[in-house]
Amino acid sequence: MSLYQHLYEVLDTRSFTTLWYWIALLAFWYLAGVRVLGIPYDMVLQARRDATAQAALAQMAALSVPRQIPAGQAGVWATGFAALLLTMLFMLGFSYGLELAQALFFLALPMCLLALMRVRVARRIHERGLEDGALVKALMRHRGMVQLLGMISVFFTVLWGMWHSLTVGVLGN
Description:
It contains seven helices and two strands, in the order ααββααααα. It is mainly α. A two-stranded antiparallel sheet has the order 1-2.
């Protein structure tokens, strides 16, 4: 095999049958769970046990939480762009049968849901001025919801990927 053939196999656009897609999917969800609204999760766990760590968490949250809330018209534009992107990927993937678009849709849809969850929690923390135990509880609940969304997302992506690989690869549809 030539170098070109090896590169073509590595950079293949058949997403559900390449290892790179699954590594990217798992890396995304790992990175989404390591930080909660930009705050390291180990800091949240430490604040749950220690009062001085709660003060450090409150300072970190005061810096990080407002950055998660879109300012002015930015949220409207971001929502419109996300809707356009999701619609485009859905149509290309499921109407025209483009596997790469299907794979990107299974990445982009949970990303958008995760962004909505982050904005919602950040607004609640910011508007209510949550501190100490209430802040820790809100951040831990958000991380649990992120993990649940990640499990559901990976589960349905694996189901769709297996179905797609079996029907296209084995059955030749």
